[in-house]
Each structure stands twice: as C-alpha cells, then as structure tokens.
C-alpha cells in the first residue's frame, strides 16, 4: 500500500515523471497528522513523495490537514526556480505526456473549503465580543473573536464561516447554520494563526403583521455570546471574494454595514501585517456606506491606515443620515460612486483592478447606475462590460 514519505529533505530518486515531490507547508500537529509516518513541524516545509495517480487524493488530504502545497516537482529533479510550480488547490494534474518541468505560474494559494461540515462542526471558544457601534448609532454590531487553536480550521481573507446556533427551530429541528464573512486575516487578529473574527449585526425588525419586534436567531445568539462560551463553526466557504495575489493591484471595495468584514481582512493584510510573500504596493480604495458616523465600524483603525498610507489607501464614506447628495437627498454609497464614476471607470479598465461589493442586498443597483453613466460617456454599455469583468474574475459581489 502506498504510504507518503516525508523526511524534511527531498528523497533522491531517479528521473521518474510518474512520481512527484510535494513541498508542503503549514501542516499542523493533530489527530490526523499524528497518524502519518513523518514529523510535522509547525513552521517549515515537509516533502511528500506522491505517485501521479494519487495526486488529487493527496492534495485533498493535505488541504484537510491544514497544509499548503507550495511546489510540486517531478521526483529526481532538483528544486530550482524553473522547476518549482506554485500550486493552486484547483490546479489540474500534469498530463502524463508532460515530461517538461512545470513552468512558472502566478503563485496562488490553495483555497481551503469545508474543513468542518455541519454534521461535525468545530467547537471554538469565544474570546472576545465587543460593540462596534458608537453612542447615538443605529442598532447593534459586535466584533467577535473565536479561539480555533484546537483544530484544523484555516481560511483566507474574503471567505466565510458558518455558525450553528444552539437549540431548535419552530419545527423542532436543530437550527441551520448561518454564514458570516470573516473579518480577520488568515493569521487572525492576534497574528498567531489561532483565531477567527466576525463582525455581526443583530437582526432586528418589526413583524409586518403583528408589529412585534423580532430578533434574528443566530445574530442575537452571537451578539449575546459570553466570553468563554463554546460556538459551533463550519467551513470555511467561499471563493468569490478572495484577494488577488498581485501586490500592485488596484482593489476597489464597496461596503455597506457589516459588508466591511472581508475588507477589514483585506486591509489588515495589506497594511497592518508584515509578510515575506505579500507586500502590497497597489491602491486600495474603500467606499463605506453607513447611516451615522457612530456606525462607522472600525473607524479609528481605518482612519489610522489612511493617515499612514495616504498613497495606497483611500477611504470614502457615504453617511446617509448626515450627508447630503447633490440633489439634497441622503448620501448613499451609489452617490459616492456616481461622484467618482469617471475615475472608477478609468480604474476598472486596468487589467489588475479588482472590484468587490459586500453588504446589503440591492446595493449593486445604484453602483451599476453610476458606472453606467461613466461608461456611457465613452459609448460603452456598462452591463456588457461588467459581464466581461465578471468573466475575468475582476468583479466580485457578495450581498445578503
Ligand atoms: C455569504 C454571507 C455572508 C454574511 N456575512 C455576514 C456578516 O459578516 N455579518 C452579519 O451580520 N451577517 C452576515 N450575513 C447574514 C447572516 O448569515 C444571517 O442571515 C443574519 O445574521 C441573520 O440571521 P439570524 O439567524 O439572526 O436571523 P433569522 O432568525 O434567520 O431571521 C432571518 C429571517 O427574518 C426575516 N426578516 C428579516 N428581516 C425582515 C424584515 N425587515 N421584515 C420581515 N422579515 C424579515 C426573513 O424571513 C429572514 O430570512 C451573511 C450572509 C451571507 C449569505
């Protein structure tokens, strides 16, 4: 039976195009990896020899164990720049005919998904839960951080996790999971790879028939969660809102309310953390729509980033109940888009510009309106152009 080998050094083998060496980082010591016959160090790479026919299976297994494949090379070939192929989790297997070394490809991190499923969620612990809405603001929005150090959960900026609230629904069935965008970078708020954070608004509305105030099940559970309490987590999920690897990209972000969550993760990765393999030098432009100044989530940190990185980070608020649009109405995010439409139109045409929209369902309408006006000045149909951007994976939307 095939058994992976991993000794910390590539084994010396003859040239054999049917056997490959995976260089793997980030495998964590744990129940699953303990069963393997090679030592896992928390940092540093391990090398695993994999026959061609088991590559897909091995990729999945490595991903489930929290590992990241940083290169694959045919066994027997030295590890040089020309033979190392950065690997994306979705990369297809090399064909049998391919005997040439794999060529440069843009490094793309593999994307972890569904490490924990609803029938076997990860039980995290709440270690932080604090209010984000200031005095005089509307509603309740909390920043929550969970300890995930005891398991294999890992994630990328722009992904979401599921939370399963305890208890049963009105049909007597266990509650279903609700998704929440992750608000922390892959390294977590404490930059120790041990936590995940969320930004949760408590759903509160008047019942359309009875007029009674109704509170959402999961959001209320989370907003009231005590520090030290257990929480059932699934995921991660989502490939729509991932940050491009390109350090010189233009990243336009449009958020309403808790739609800020993935952008907090982006911005913290771009500007707050230090990485060997990612040093952002492009332009990040955040449009943020909220009702009142007191509702500007993460206000201090955002404004500090703007002060520290004025050439790389632009911050544009639309504060609907305090600012007015040119028609004298409330200033919504679409008004800011219209105001800056010409510049945005120039930006979206650049090949390395990615636009992200996150937050309230329906916010895209106004954004499209603004972009249509700008594109129309150049006789371009925005809807057609946007389709191309989506196809090129440069227009990303996650609204709820
Ligand atoms: C990909 C994704 C990411 C998300 N990220 C976040 C996030 O970062 N932060 C966040 O706070 N939320 C986020 N959400 C929303 C979240 O998943 C939940 O939907 C939200 O918290 C409400 O869940 P709940 O259990 O509190 O409400 P529930 O108890 O499930 O109640 C929701 C239901 O209430 C009803 N309802 C809601 N509003 C009204 C109204 N005005 N009038 C009448 N009926 C109404 C609707 O039937 C609705 O389905 C995200 C959703 C998705 C899909």
What does this protein structure show overall?
- By secondary structure, the chain is of the alpha/beta class.
- It is built from nine helices and 16 strands.
- The protein has helices at residues 31-34, 55-64, 217-223, 260-272, 299-308, 333-339, 341-348, 363-376, 382-391; strands at 16-25, 45-51, 68-75, 122-131, 141-147, 160-164, 178-181, 195-201, 204-206, 213-215, 230-237, 250-256, 283-290, 313-319, 353-359, 395-399.
- The longest helix is centred in the C-terminal third of the chain and has 14 residues, at 363-376.
- The protein is globular, with a radius of gyration of 23 Å.
- The N and C termini lie far apart (48 Å).
- The relative contact order is 0.10.
- The structure holds flavin-adenine dinucleotide.
- Residues 160, 178-181, 199-201, 203, 205, 208, 216-220, 258, 261, 398, 400 line the site of flavin-adenine dinucleotide.
């Amino acid at each position: 039976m095939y058994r992976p080998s991993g000794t910390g050094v590539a084994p010396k083998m003859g040239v054999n195009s049917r056997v490959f060496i995976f260089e793997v980082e980030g495998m964590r010591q744990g129940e699953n990896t303990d069963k393997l016959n090679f030592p896992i160090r928390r940092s540093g790479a391990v090398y695993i020899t994999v026959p061609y026919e088991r590559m897909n299976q091995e990729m999945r297994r490595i991903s489930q164990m929290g590992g990241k494949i940083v290169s694959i090379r045919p066994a027997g070939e030295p590890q040089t720049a020309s033979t190392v192929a950065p690997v994306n989790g979705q990369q297809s297997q090399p064909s049998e005919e391919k005997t040439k070394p794999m060529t440069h490809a843009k490094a793309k991190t593999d994307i972890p998904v569904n490490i924990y499923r609803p029938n076997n969620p990860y039980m995290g612990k709440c270690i932080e839960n604090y209010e984000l809405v200031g005095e005089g603001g509307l509603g309740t929005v909390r920043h929550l951080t969970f300890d995930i150090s005891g398991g294999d959960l890992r994630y990328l900026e722009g992904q979401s996790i599921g939370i399963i609230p305890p208890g049963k629904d009105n049909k007597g069935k266990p509650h279903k999971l609700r998704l929440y965008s992750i608000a922390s970078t892959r390294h977590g708020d404490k930059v120790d790879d041990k936590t995940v954070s969320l930004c949760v608004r408590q759903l509160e509305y008047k019942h359309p028939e009875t007029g009674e105030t109704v509170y959402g099940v999961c959001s209320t559970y989370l907003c009231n969660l005590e520090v030290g309490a257990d929480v059932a987590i699934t995921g991660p999920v989502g490939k729509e809102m991932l940050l491009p690897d390109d350090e010189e990209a233009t990243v336009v972000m449009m958020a309403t309310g808790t739609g800020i969550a993935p952008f907090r993760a982006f911005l913290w990765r771009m500007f707050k953390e230090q990485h060997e393999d990612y040093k952002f030098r492009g332009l990040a432009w955040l449009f943020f729509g909220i009702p009142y100044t007191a509702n500007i989530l993460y206000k201090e940190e955002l404004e500090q980033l703007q002060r520290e990185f004025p050439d790389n980070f632009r911050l544009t608020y639309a504060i609907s109940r305090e600012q007015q649009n040119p028609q004298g109405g409330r200033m919504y995010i679409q008004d800011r888009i219209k105001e800056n439409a010409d510049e945005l139109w120039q930006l979206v045409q650049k090949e390395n510009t990615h636009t992200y929209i996150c937050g309230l369902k329906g916010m895209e309408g106004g954004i499209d309106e603004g972009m249509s006006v700008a594109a129309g000045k150049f006789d371009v149909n925005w809807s057609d152009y946007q389709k191309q951007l989506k196809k090129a994976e440069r227009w990303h939307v996650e609204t709820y």
